Amino acid sequence: MEDFSNKWKIEYETGIPEIDQQHKKLFNYIETLSIAIYSKSGKDELISLCRFLKNYIDTHFSTEEILMRQAHYPNLEQHMEVHRSFEEYYKIIEKELFEKGADHYLAIEIENKMHSWWKNHIIKMDMQYVPYFKDEKK
After folding, report:
1. Whole-model pTM?
2. What are phi and psi of 7, to 5 degrees?
3. Which DSSP string do the residues of 30-65 spell out, in sequence order?
């Protein structure tokens, strides 16, 4: 998928160690799910990814929002709205997973969503706050 390869790239780094570490973990889970889908074990990895996402959403979003607030990032509210939207998406997939169980099609759907999230949120949107954080550190 465009803008997502199986290797971590320097371009993915924000220069904020805590954020980069969290992003790397997410990246690895997405990649593991992708590989599992094509080796026909996507259902098992989907459950693992969903467990990870529950914690990731709580930990990462709050960490990121605290840092953006401290750096006086002007688009904080917009960024937080996108986080809340992803939280709502997660609730939907968690419910579907609970009600229907993991299946290959849900794994593919979530893989596509996660690739899109990586491309549009992490690579584009998250990188917009980086200069503000670096200015704050000076």
Report:
1. 0.87
2. -125, 135
3. HHHHHHHHHTT-HHHHHHHHHHHHHHHHHHHHHHHH
